[in-house]
Amino acid sequence: MNGKRERLQIIHDILVTIQKNDGKVKPTHILYKANLSHQMLDEYLDELISKEFIVEKKIKSLKTYSLSDKGFKFLEKYGLITEFVDSFGLN
User: Fold this and answer.
1) CA–CA gap between residue 71 and residue 20 (Å, rounded)
2) Are 66 and 26 contacting, i.e. CB atoms less than 8 angstroms apart?
3) Is residue 53 part of a domain?
4) Residue 62 belongs to domain spanning
5) Residue 1 lies in a domain
6) Within 13 Å and on the Cβ side, how many CA atoms surround 82?
7) pTM of the complete model
């Protein structure tokens, strides 16, 4: 294991977690699956919302998150980049 994850890997982990849960995922689930502290999760979610990668939905006190088109495109391009890097043995 490489140890500390890079920022893009963390963003990828968050977006994949949301994608795998049909776009209706609670923050606690993201926290566990992406292995983040509450503070780090809040910072990443705020950034991803402000940059329109994800959408936050609030029903009463319950928050859920779903991917936007931009979030889906990020995952697609991220996959292409990792495939390219892996093909040259640079992973």
Assistant:
1) 13
2) no
3) yes
4) 7-87
5) no
6) 9
7) 0.90
Contact 79, 19 (CB under 8 A): no
Close Cβ partners of 91 (under 8 Å, ≥ 6 residues apart): 82, 85
Q: For the chain, what is the radius of gyration of the CA atoms?
A: 14
Give me 75's structure tokens.
């995952």
| 2 within a domain of the structure (yes/no) | no
Tokens standing for 29? 């689930």
CATH number for 32: 1.10.10.10
Residue 55 in domain: yes
Q: Considering only CA atoms, which of 43, 40, 41 is closest in space to residue 30?
A: 41
Query: Among all chains, which residue has been given the structure tokens 């990668």?
Result: 53
How many domains would you assign to the chain?
1
The tens digit of pLDDT for each residue in 30-75 reads 999 999 999 999 999 999 999 999 999 998 989 999 999 999 999 9
